[in-house]
């Protein structure tokens, strides 16, 4: 597999071998932002005026997000950056790791800002253990990281599903708040993060495109169908029916 083949030139960036992968890296670099750029000062007032079921769903979504970026990073650090030998892709993964840390910090700040009860805060920060619907998504991703028999191609598809399918419903639900003019800090950070995750998902698809030995269509379909089922279950759990207009 060319992407994974021992590459003695991996320590030097030029000459560029994979121009499309390099362009993705430059695109990611140009989108850099930090948590300090997001103003949360108006959010608390809005938070207090939300209905209980709206607060319930936002805290579920934030709890999932707070944990998920760390899981994505675990995969990048433990597996992908060690397997892929192409310098341009390593540049992208290195930058993605930095951005996932910023996302993680942002979600932790959001929970910290909105949730004043220390017990509830702990519950949300430990969602992987405390919330079954979050645990299920986390376990699915962690199993893929730990699977020593799965080829890189299968795991690329699985993590495209994590950043594409597992995130998209939650992003959409926060955009619904934006449409209503609520929670400007949360909705602005959501725009930035959803843009980043869209790029990460596109990058996974680009890596898949470059694979010579791709997993079978049947294998890919199985991974995606599985991820969709878990996401449907999560959204059914996190989004109370009473949220009209969602």
> Which CATH C-level class is it?
Mainly Alpha
Work out the helix count: 10
CATH architecture: Orthogonal Bundle
**Uncertain spans:** none
Give the amount of beta strand, in percent.
under 5%
Q: How confident is the prediction overall: mean pLDDT? A: 92
How much is the radius of gyration in Å? Answer: 19 Å
User: Which class of secondary structure composition applies to the elements?
Assistant: mainly alpha
Protein name: Ribonucleoside-diphosphate reductase subunit M2
Pfam families: Ribonuc_red_sm
GO molecular function, one term: ribonucleoside-diphosphate reductase activity, thioredoxin disulfide as acceptor
GO biological process, one term: deoxyribonucleotide biosynthetic process
Task: Describe the protein.
- GO terms for molecular function: metal ion binding; ribonucleoside-diphosphate reductase activity, thioredoxin disulfide as acceptor.
- Keywords: Cytoplasm, Deoxyribonucleotide synthesis, Iron, Metal-binding, Oxidoreductase, Phosphoprotein.
- This protein is mainly α and 246 residues long.
- The protein has one domain (42-244): Ribonucleotide Reductase, subunit A (Orthogonal Bundle), CATH 1.10.620.
- The chain contains 10 helices and no strands.
- It has helices at residues 19-30, 43-49, 52-83, 87-114, 118-125, 127-130, 132-146, 152-179, 184-210, 217-238.
- α1 packs parallel to α4 (87-114) and α7 (132-146) runs antiparallel to α8 (152-179).
- The longest helix has 32 residues, at 52-83.
- The mean pLDDT is 92.
